[in-house]
Amino acid sequence: MPNTDNQALDGGASFRAEDLTRPARTLLLYYLLCSLLSGPFFPIAFVPLFCKYATLRYRFDDSGIAMQWGVLFRREIYLTYRRIQDIHLTRNIIQRWMGLATLAVQTASGSATPEMSIEGILQAKDLRDHLYGKMRGSLGHSQPEPDNTSNDDLALELLTDIRDNLHQLVQAGGRHEQ
Amino acid sequence: MSNKPQPSLTWVYEGVWGLLGKLMCVPRDAPHLPVMDHEEIDSRKPAAGFLRYLKFEWAIAMAFLFLLAGGATIAIVANKNVGFSILAIPVWLSFFGLALVGYLAIYLRYDTTWYVFSDRSMRLRRGVWLIRESTITYENIQNVKVSQGPLQRFFGIANVVVETAGGGGATQEGAQGMHAGLIEGVSDAAEIRDSIMAKTRVAHTSGLGDEHDEASNQNSGKTAWTEAHLGVLSEIRELSAQLGR
Q1: ipTM value of the model?
Q2: Of chain B residues 215-244, which have a CB less than 8 A from chain A?
Q3: In what order do the strands lie in the sheet with A75-80?
């Protein structure tokens, strides 16, 4: 079986997270299906979801992700890449059929629900790997050797000066005694 | 893989997988994890004992179900209630169907579970209906827990739960909390725990979202003084001692 899952979710090589600002149109269809599942309560379920879809905006910048939505009650979430604790990509069967995914991004705050659920991104796997590349610990544990040569040269210079001054003092004191 | 079902059942199973793969977009191979140079990827599945463990649980559940159903059937037949006796037939058929689906689900669960470890992070995938892939870097790991029940000990498997910072974490059994990763049904839990802890220990930060704080680390503590500094300092001490005399 070829990996259908990769074909469906990988957007190809030309992936740029900065270009993602709006969720894909399929998200609206997904929300429609979800609210249809609630049967007679369809309008009650659909209106908030439609409002969320209509106002949902993402912004991926150099340091973090911003996400905002809401008509009456506005919500805005901002988090930096370096504070990401773990990333969960979940796809239920409807989402897989539509090529959607929910990307839950976690920080170390004390809530059990994810801090940010990124929905409606077709290249969810690319986005996840992009975030993975920027999160803490993804660069490996390459602790650079502390290079004292540049920074602490001043300290060494000062110490050497003090020693030389002391040396002169000692010699001068010795001569004085004689 | 040595943990395939019986040859007679294989074609049924492969058919189910073909259907699942096409219709439900369930990936069968290991999740992909981006790698850096010289990075080793270790993709693994739960141990074979996990399969036996699940089957045992399934057998017990089914035995219970059929015992109950058998008792009910005997009671109905003894009562010579014809209407209920006819009703019992579809009920029994659906029970057999349930048992078959449950048995297949064990294999599906086993085959869709993947644990991928790299030098920096791990990616855990589980689920058939709801596929969930968690990516956790070692640097963010706060603690590793190993748990093993008596039945699991009998089958030689254990669960490893990895937790990151943040509340609302793992429940005891399922580890469904979002700040945790569950590595279920592995036979070498101790080695996995040790290797995770070794990789976690390499990280110098507390795993709470701060950058590598190299600049402040250098200015504090002993690292700021090199051999040269100490040499000059001891000379200064001697000279000042001479001066004092």
Answers
A1: 0.72
A2: 217-218, 223-224, 226, 228-229, 232-233, 235-236, 239-240, 242-243
A3: A57-60, A64-69, A75-80
